[in-house]
Amino acid sequence: MRLKIDDLSKKYKDKKALDSVSLSASNGIYGLLGPNGAGKTTLMRILAGIIIPNKGSIFFDGEDVLKDMDNFRYKIGYLPQEFGCYKSLSVKECLDTIGVLKGVKASERKKQIEEVLLEVNLSNEANKKVGALSGGMRRRLGIAQAMLGNPAFIMVDEPTAGLDPEERIRFRGFIRKIATNRVVLLSTHIIEDIKNNCDGLALINNGKVEQFNGFEELEKLASGKVWRIVLTNDDFKKIESKYRILSTNTNDNGLEIRVYSETKPLEDAVVVQPTVEEGYLTWISK
Amino acid sequence: MDKQINKMIPLGFDLKTAGYSGYFILLSIAATIVFHLKLMGGSETKIISLQSTLFIISVIGILVWILPAYMDIVNTESKELILSLPINGFAFVFLRVLRLFALYAIFFLVLLFIISAKSGGAGLEYGIVDMFLIAGALFFMSGLGLIVLLISKHMVIGYGIPILWVAISFFYRGGASWLWHTCQWIVPKPFESSWRYAIAHWITGLLFHIISTFIIKQREYLIK
Questions:
Q1: Chain A to chain B, count of Cβ pairs less than 8 Å apart?
Q2: What is the pLDDT of residues B48-62, one digit of tens each?
Q3: With a cut of 0.95, is the ipTM above it?
Q4: pTM for this structure?
Q5: Is residue B126 part of a domain?
Q6: Residue A50 and residue B223: Cβ atoms within 8 Å?
Q7: Beta partners for residue A254, in sequence order
């Protein structure tokens, strides 16, 4: 399976929500990282056939998606940022309803529902009302519904927003599990969601997208520009407004800070290996 | 056709979505009839009171019966997912509403038929035209509620505009509602013939449902 997006643009009045976006993804998890309002949801909505782009093309497995969106919708599993439908129905009934709308045959629906519930560890909650589920369970139900109909392409938008750390870790495991033999596009503004979990990566900001071959490439963006400085609290106050402080850490020697700077900020500053986060911040502030 | 039927949400789920409000309406109608017929007798004033109560309950009831099935399409928590699904507009709107409407209308008309048969010349007899008009009024209200809900994308407006229309029709006795005088069936009937009112309600109701089927496919409009 291969997704190929080329020169995709979307404009709302005078604002460019997406500006000539091009990217490609194959089987596995593909991370789309960017701050809030960067254009992630717009891209997701276009891929889900909810909004229509002003220009550009999308090909999935060689087929022109925009020419036959009705057919492509059968190949998509989508977990939007907000998921809370059919709250008065039970988990099983909710999945059955979505299965009907996805066109899953009645003879296959029951089996598929049991399988996906097992997959996301919600079998014991099958008869519980959707409205009574916790945030984490609801996200898992969201993944279960996305898997119904065995789609070749799954999109998850900000899947871990609002989840506690334990649920987040568990959720990343689920995403990894479903990524076999299909393309999974994971959009997030949380770096941990994609670090060590994604096979490909793209950054998005102000509607522009840049694709990276790996996290090392992203880290390299900040190479030679991240400095470690050990200083006192008083010295810190003097320099904090002058430089971009990336992190602070108190230890026995005083305050250890990491600073982003094109040139050496202080005499005793030491250049250090940048992290993914620092590479990301460098790209965002371009 | 097989695909259309295949894409119909199970009726039981729709009834569950209507929730207690849906069952409350049915109970209210039944309770009203029992209350008026058994406990209060059949004087003309009481008959008008019964009809008015029935009317108000029935036209508001059809909204409470049908609109919750489409709440998820206007709710921000759920609409994005539903709009991403390969919805078949005909099955998702037209056939689904028709099924819910038929259920409600049959229940209501059977009740009226029973009243008509039991009232024994007390002025509560309903002929074919009356039944046709009453069902048409319900169909019109269902369509009006649905189209307003989908255009406004707001549940309160979806209920509010049709209720406002009913209020105008009820208090002005057809004076400001032209052919869509939804209360024409209440005694004393303001106009001689009910036919044209019935036909107007059915045609407009049908039109509203067809337009609603079209609106549901306008995903970009609905998501905004």
A1: 88
A2: 777 777 778 888 889
A3: no
A4: 0.88
A5: yes
A6: yes
A7: A251
